[in-house]
Inverse folding.
């Protein structure tokens, strides 16, 4: 027998509407430098709610139902971006415990070694490897970063570096992190293969996670196709779903980027624009959101907000 809350959600979300959640990491214990990332306990709490009230699909399966008009009420997709090792070590066992599928959008440049630029900066700040002189050397003002609590320093540094041109950003990170070891945070090929073998969907997320809209056409295509080819080699089958790095329409991806994703052979792609998806939603600009509130009521409140808060996408 369906609960009153389940009935309300069914009426509220309706049939043939698709909600997509966006996670990155699930950390074993709370990390003050990544305060929005759910712990294992919080993620399990989310899964209990999802298991009770939602019909969960991988993205590719959900899109087949959406386009055929057969998607059930309260349909939902769980996605993870980037390819962190804790997706395999922490999130996967919980997904398996509750028999819930998910879609993992993976970068490929950091498979079996290396780290994304933001993680290198976070870990360098954590161990005190970035000082005033290093910041001034890359034209950043130390007092706006290092004179803050460490969690705020991380946020401010990442925001100042994030939208630099790719080459300049790489130079900035290398100079700031030259005395810090490269952290090992991402999945290896064996972990990716195990996630796929567990019935999860593997999707593309570019090779090195650049802002695709900032790249020239050929570089953009190379980022997308290299990523797809490498991931398909690991799992031994085609991948059909893509996530735009960062994912904001017009700012992080454009019509040219969409065309490159289509040209690579993908069937659908997700952004980070809020809103639910219908059969008329552009399948290469699917909407999704990050459930950063950790309480059950907060989680449900975000679902409600997402139902009516619809951001525009690329036209």
């Amino acid at each position: 027998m369906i609960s009153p809350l389940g009935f309300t959600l069914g009426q509220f979300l309706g049939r043939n509407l698709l909600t997509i959640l966006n996670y990155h990491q699930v950390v074993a214990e709370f990390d003050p430098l990544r305060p929005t990332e759910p712990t294992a306990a919080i993620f399990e709490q989310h899964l209990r709610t999802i298991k009770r009230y939602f019909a969960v699909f991988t993205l590719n399966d959900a899109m087949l139902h959406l386009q055929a008009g057969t998607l059930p009420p309260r349909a939902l997709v769980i996605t993870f971006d980037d390819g962190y090792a804790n997706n395999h070590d922490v999130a996967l066992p919980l997904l398996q415990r509750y028999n819930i599928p998910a879609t993992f959008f993976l970068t490929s440049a950091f498979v079996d070694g290396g780290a994304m630029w933001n993680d290198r900066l976070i870990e360098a700040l954590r161990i005190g490897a970035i000082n005033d002189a290093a910041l001034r050397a890359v034209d950043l003002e130390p007092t706006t970063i290092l004179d803050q609590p460490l969690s705020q320093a991380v946020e401010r540094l990442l925001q100042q570096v994030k939208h630099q041109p790719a080459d300049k950003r790489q130079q900035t990170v290398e100079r700031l992190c030259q005395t810090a070891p490269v952290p090992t945070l991402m999945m290896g090929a064996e972990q990716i293969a195990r996630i796929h073998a567990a019935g999860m969907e593997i999707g593309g997320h570019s090779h090195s996670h650049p802002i695709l809209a900032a790249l020239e056409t050929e570089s953009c295509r190379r980022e997308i196709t290299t990523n797809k080819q490498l991931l398909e080699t690991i799992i031994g089958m085609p991948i059909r779903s893509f996530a735009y790095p960062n994912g904001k329409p017009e700012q992080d991806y454009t019509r040219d980027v969409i065309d490159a994703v289509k040209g690579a052979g993908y069937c659908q792609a997700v952004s980070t624009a809020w809103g639910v998806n219908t059969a008329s939603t552009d399948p290469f600009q699917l909407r999704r959101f990050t459930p950063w509130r950790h309480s059950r009521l907060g989680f449900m409140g975000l679902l409600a907000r997402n139902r009516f808060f619809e951001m525009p996408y690329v036209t």
